[in-house]
Specification:
190 residues, alpha/beta, 6-stranded mixed sheet, 8 helices, 6 strands
Length: 190
């Protein structure tokens, strides 16, 4: 069984990333269960998707301390959800910080290095991805999800291959964005 938590802020593409993982698992012939919490997504709130791949999965929700991987679209959300990661798990995270409104109003700020160091206390590996740079090279900010998925794939997702994700993109992404997403999957080197 493989447990992956996808987290970010509404509008970043977390739900599509989870759907691509689901579709890739199905293409690989694996059983998959997933669920997302998207209540405040339209207001810039937290979004989490639970993706559980394997035959002995009976619930779509990942228990605390059981995620093999967290794919985080933002550093604060990665730190907020680190309780889901099992000891020695992997965090693939966008190195961007989007400060919560309440923190901004209170005059608080967050430090990238401090947050990554905090995650390293639990994670076996933290992979920080500069998605802004890659999006700039591709000419579109709409592929952060595919960039992070590509980085996660390079770290290894049991039973899922690049070909499975390519097929998921072809089936799930609007036709006019397929080629852009395939390029993002390819260039998502860290």
């Amino acid at each position: 069984m493989t447990n992956i938590l996808v987290c970010g802020i509404g509008g970043q593409g977390t739900v599509l990333a989870a759907k691509l993982l689901d579709q890739a698992a199905i293409h690989a012939g694996l059983s998959v269960h997933s669920a997302e919490t998207i209540g405040m997504a339209q207001r810039g709130g937290s979004v989490t998707s639970h993706v559980r791949i394997g035959n002995d999965v009976y619930s779509p929700l990942i228990p605390f301390g059981s995620a093999d991987m967290i794919i985080a679209f933002e550093l604060c959300e990665a730190a907020r959800n680190i309780c889901y990661l099992k000891k020695g798990g992997t965090v693939v995270v966008n190195n961007k910080i989007i400060s919560p409104v309440t923190a901004v109003l209170a005059g608080k700020s967050f430090d990238e290095k401090t947050m990554i160091d905090y995650m390293k206390e639990t994670a076996g590996k933290v992979v920080a991805v500069d998605t802004d740079r890659i999006c700039s090279e591709l000419g579109s900010a709409k592929v952060v999800n595919t960039i992070l998925l590509g980085a996660a794939l390079r770290e290894g997702i049991a039973g899922i291959t690049k070909e499975d994700v390519v097929e998921a993109i072809r089936l799930s992404v609007k036709p006019k964005f397929v080629e852009l997403n395939l390029r993002a999957l390819e260039v998502s080197k860290i």
